[in-house]
Amino acid sequence: MANLYIDNVHKSFGETHILKGIDMDIADGEFIILVGPSGCGKSTLMNCIAGLEQVTTGRVIIDDEDVTQSMPKDRDIAMVFQSYALYPNMNVWKNIAFGLEIRKLPKEEIEETVGRVADLLQIRDLLKRKPSQLSGGQRQRVAMGRALARDPKIFLFDEPLSNLDAKLRVEMRTEIKKLHQRLGTTIVYVTHDQIEAMTLANRIAVMKEGHIQQFGTPQEVYDNPANQFVAGFMGSPSMNFIRCQVVDHQGDATIAMSVDGKDFHLPIPQQEKGVRERVGQEVVLGIRPEQITDVVPQQEQASTLANVDAEIIVTEPTGADTLTLIRMNDQEVNCRVHPARAGAPGDTMTFMINMDKAVFFDLASGDRI
Amino acid sequence: MTQSPPLSEPTRAVRKVHKPSLGDRLAEQIPRLVVSPTMLIAVVFIYGFMIWTVVLSFSTSRILPRYEFIGWQNYQRLFGNERWMVALTNLGIYGVLFVVICLAIGLLLAILLDQKIRAEGFLRTVYLYPMALSFIVTGTVWKWLLNPSVGIQRFGRELGFENFRFDWLVSSDMSIYTVVIAAVWQSSGFVMALFLAGLRGVDDSIIKAAQIDGASRITVYTRIIIPSLRPVFFSAIIMLAHIAIKSFDLALALTGGGPGYSSDLPAIFMYQFSFTRGQMGVGAASAVIMLMGVMAILIPYLYSELRVKKDDR
Ligand SMILES: Nc1ncnc2c1ncn2[C@@H]1O[C@H](COP(=O)(O)OP(=O)(O)OP(=O)(O)O)[C@@H](O)[C@H]1O
Ligand SMILES: [Mg+2]
């Protein structure tokens, strides 16, 4: 168990700068999720924490010790690699036991640990097999097992569940969460899965092109994105971005919107003071699909609501909700409606827009206003 | 509720049946047509001559082939011949040392070259270069180097070590070891290339994982990388072993089988009995024994190669 402090870490491979000043202060026992588009440097950052890559400049501090120059084996970290990295010449049992043997644990303890981990990951039947005789999902679980067999200061997980089937993935997610609650070990975890990110994290770090865009609790990142990139990256289906103008309507700043040729005004929430000052300017309105729904009568009185009739272009039933595509200001907008109340493509239906959680971005920079 | 149509009808009418055109069929046959002459030549000149040799080994042939059969007599004479037994013993010494030393040096060089050093391409070529020479050239060069009156011994003495001795080439006890030296010099670069390719095939992240597990560099090599090179070891041993059995030109150029017949190898024995001493029957018998030796190595190899797809190596 340890805290982890990443201090202005830069990493370049020759002329290519991959990490451009990463700062993270992670408390003991925190579960940190690292998300970002492919190639943004997540694995590189993990390697730098583990000591597999030397940082170009900056410091890595684990448990209040500066380990920037330490060898990986001295950092007491366990890691699950994106590419599994199983030892091809050893069977599953040996793969899991290897790190323990190297650390010279007593035989009985190794036996017991491997058994426990194998049960946890449901790989008891596979212990005798070589990695080449396993499926991708099975390999991934063995890779997890190898890390979980140890009791390190920090766990680093690089997309550890990406190759599992949907059911197993949910099970493993729960297991990881339980494990974290039981052990309380600090975890840094890379994933592309939105649900994993939201459910597991104490805090989420959103990365893009070697910078951390935002580092906060899941709810903060979801409700209060720092910029348009974070807003678009978190959430599935992603947030709608609508270019629109701030206008003065009956003495109040509002958003001018036109749907299917009809003009109307959307209220701006009171807390969005910055936008209220931009009367006459164009901004980007960010609104999540679940904030544009079918009309729910008991909510209709709220001041941040507006109803609008729009023609349905496409519907995508997901089971729980039906995603419905409409056009606002001539831009496509996804709405989430109750399946029973969704119309067919071509129909016109009334949508209720809840502006309570709407966010606004600068047109040029994409920053939150 | 609508009734869904039956899923499959017993006989279904189709509009058109696609048949491969003449051109398609010709294209399919082209590979066979192209290799067939080579195939024919191989059958006649390799397998045909093999069978002919086997036939001759049971005949009374001396200078010229004769088809008068005498059963196993040639084999009896062969194994009664002291010179053949020396050649077999030599092959044992030479074969084992050659294979083991080549593997050791090849692996060591490969591991050293794999440390992301500069000028790796250049060094690789240097080590591989002996492979480009024919065994005759290697033999001749080493004959000079090992000759006590012009080579290493003289060099040592000229440096001031008056009692320096390195006369294995002219000693009947040690001459076979000079063949080992020259053969190792020639082939270990090739073994290095095999191992280097194998090392490059090891996924980088496996090494990283082992480092995180706490393994030292040496442990990473001994416990993970070298064991995972097992298939490479296997191929290298097979290749070296059959080079060893067939060794002829190197020993002939280097020692000529001498002094006396102290560094004779089966291939030299076979050549001399068949073609210079007019004992073709015995020579053919020795050739058949060598063929058996090669097959004893190759057949398990081919067997395992052909079923390697099925399970893990
Ligand atoms: N050893 C290396 N040498 C040169 N460039 C590298 C090296 N390792 C990574 N890169 C580059 O660094 C960038 C970031 O790679 P990284 O593996 O960290 O991405 P990632 O965020 O983990 O992506 P993914 O989600 O696809 O796993 C990539 O553009 C990659 O090409
Ligand atoms: Mg990655």
From TrEMBL, chain A:
Origin: domain of life: Bacteria
GO process annotations (BP): carbohydrate transport
ABC transporter domain: residues covered: 4-234
Keywords for the protein's UniProt record, in alphabetical order: ATP-binding, Nucleotide-binding, Transport
Sections of the chain in a coiled coil: none
CDD domains: ABC_MalK_N
Keyword Chaperone among UniProt keywords: no
Cited InterPro entries: AAA+_ATPase, ABC_transporter-like_ATP-bd, ABC_transporter-like_CS, ABC_transpr_MalK-like, ABC_transpr_MalK/UgpC-like, Mo/tungstate-bd_C_term_dom, NA-bd_OB-fold, OB_MalK-like
Molecular function via GO: ABC-type transporter activity; ATP binding; ATP hydrolysis activity
Cellular component terms per the entry's GO annotation: ATP-binding cassette (ABC) transporter complex, substrate-binding subunit-containing
Matches recorded under NCBIfam families: PRK11650.1
Name the record gives this protein: sn-glycerol-3-phosphate ABC transporter ATP-binding protein UgpC
Gene: ugpC
UniProtKB/TrEMBL annotation, chain B:
Location in or out of the cell: Cell membrane
Protein's membrane topology: Multi-pass membrane protein
First-listed, main subcellular location of the protein, grouped into a coarse class: membrane
Domain of life assignment: Bacteria
Transmembrane segments: 33-55, 91-113, 125-145, 174-199, 220-245, 280-303
Coiled-coil annotated spans: none
Species: Natronospirillum operosum
InterPro entries the UniProt entry points to: ABC_transporter_permease, MetI-like, MetI-like_sf
Protein's UniProt keywords contain Transmembrane helix: yes
Domain ABC transmembrane type-1: 88-303
Name of the featured protein: Sugar ABC transporter permease
A biological process from GO: transmembrane transport
Family listed: Belongs to the binding-protein-dependent transport system permease family.
A GO CC term attached to the entry: plasma membrane
Keywords: Cell membrane, Membrane, Transmembrane, Transmembrane helix, Transport
